[in-house]
Design brief:
With 148 residues, the protein is mainly beta. The protein has a domain of 73 residues. The chain is built from two helices and five strands, in the order E-E-E-E-E-H-H. Strands 1-2-3-4-5 form a five-stranded antiparallel beta sheet. It is elongated.
C-alpha cells in the first residue's frame, strides 16, 4: 500500500440539519478526499464519517413483484415485517463513528479547509440541540471559500 502523506484539508464545513436539529457536516471539495460525507449527530454527540470505499455485504431487502411493489407475506415475520424478503449482495460505503470530543475536533481540524472560520466547536460543546424553526436565524453556507 502506498503511503500518502497528503491527507486532510479536502472537505468544507457547512451548517446542516440532522434529526430536526442544527448541526454541521463536512462535504468533499477535492477529488482526493477519502470520505463522501461527515455528519455530527448532536443528539448522540457522535461524528459519523462515511468513507468512499465500497464493501460488499449481504442484506435483506423487500421482495418486489413485476410492478415494483412489495410482495405481501401470509404472516408477520420475526423481524415484524408483513412482506417477503430476499437476501442480496449489496455494495455499502464504509462508516466510522468518532465518539471522543477531542478526536472529533482533531478530525475536523485535519480535514476542513474552513475549520478556522467556521465555529464547529459551538455544536460540539452545545448542551441541548436547538429545534429548527425556533428562531428567525438564517442558514448561512460558506460561499467565499475558493479551492485551488
Amino acid at each position: 500500500m502506498k503511503n500518502n502523506n497528503n491527507i486532510g484539508k479536502n472537505m468544507c464545513l457547512v451548517k446542516a440539519i440532522w434529526q430536526n436539529k442544527e448541526t454541521f457536516k463536512l462535504i468533499p471539495v477535492l477529488d482526493n478526499c477519502p470520505y463522501n460525507e461527515v455528519v455530527y449527530d448532536p443528539l448522540l454527540s457522535l461524528l459519523y464519517v462515511i468513507g468512499n470505499k465500497e464493501k460488499k455485504q449481504f442484506q435483506y431487502v423487500p421482495k418486489l413483484d413485476s410492478n415494483g411493489n412489495k410482495v405481501k407475506s401470509t404472516k408477520q415475520k420475526e423481524n415484524g415485517v408483513w412482506y417477503k424478503e430476499e437476501r442480496v449482495l449489496v455494495g455499502l460505503l464504509s462508516e466510522y463513528h468518532i465518539i471522543d470530543k477531542k478526536e472529533q475536533e482533531k478530525f475536523v481540524e485535519m480535514f476542513a479547509v474552513n475549520s478556522g472560520e467556521f465555529d464547529f466547536r459551538y455544536f460540539l460543546n452545545k448542551e441541548e440541540p436547538k429545534e429548527m424553526g425556533s428562531s428567525n436565524e438564517e442558514l448561512i453556507l460558506p460561499s467565499d471559500i475558493i479551492i485551488k
